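This part of the workshop introduces the protein records we will be handling. A record pairs a protein's sequence with a compact description of its fold. Backbone structure tokens are a discrete shorthand for how the chain folds in space. The question running through the whole workshop is how a given chain folds. The record below serves as our worked example for the rest of this section.
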Amino acid sequence: MRAASAHRPAPVVSAPKPEGARLAGVATMVGSGLSNQIGAATGSLAFPVLGPLGVVAVRQYVAAVVLIAVARPRPRTFTWRQWWPVLLLALVFGTMNLSLYSAIDRIGLGLAVTLEFLGPLAIALAASRRRADACWAVVAAAGVVTLMRPRPSADYLGMGLAVLAAVCWASYILLNRTVGRRIPGAQGSAAAAGLSALMFLPVGIVLAVRQPPTAAAVGCAVAAGVLSSAVPYLADLFTLRRVPAQAFGLFMSVNPVLAALVGWIVLGQRLGWIEWAGIGAVVVANALSIMGRAKAEPAGR
């Protein structure tokens, strides 16, 4: 359930497998990351016809179909204690994707995904009590200041939308934990995806009536849903059974770099060396934080 990054329910993690299985898991992670960013880039090609709102609506429909088919939720059995985090998760899911895609439309894929990545990075750093993580937080902050520095061409609304997506992603992570504890499997996340799709259903109807979309635009939006929701989710089910959770998190931190590369190659969105330095600072901060926690974990046991 990612937008252009890691937005989907965390599948159950089992013990790491032998080396061959780990290599397959790494290859799947690479494919998942590229699929996610290529999906976002493909969806942006439909912006001139559907706009970010229309693309997100179609993507929500695709995500709902995939997750409901995989998890097969039984909402009639949910209690109110289970329902309220599902409702919040549905609202956050839709807001997160809409704000991210609107940001991509204004400031480009690489910058939008990097700023959005501050959400999970903030959750990880806030949960830590290690001094080293305070240093990595400073490094990440320096990268953000670099990316959001005042300049004539700066689009602060676009940056603000990306930061809103980051806040939504952090909320999404916390809500998913609550939903996962209260509802078995991925039923809660699937129900949230279905509700989010229902919220966007009037949007899709209005857009289709006011300006009938072209087949190419709808195809791009559907491809975005498949490549950025269905493929990454199913890939993660495969990956987390074959690689340690720390390795998975470490690779996820490279997504802003993949987004910048895909934005450059597919959409022609070139970044200057200052922007690359800012992206690198955010990625390095997250990677070093994950590596530090992985080393410290055995000592605490």
Q: What stands out?
A: The two ends are 33 Å apart (CA to CA). DSSP finds twelve helices and no strands in the chain. Confidence is low (pLDDT under 50) at residues 8-16.
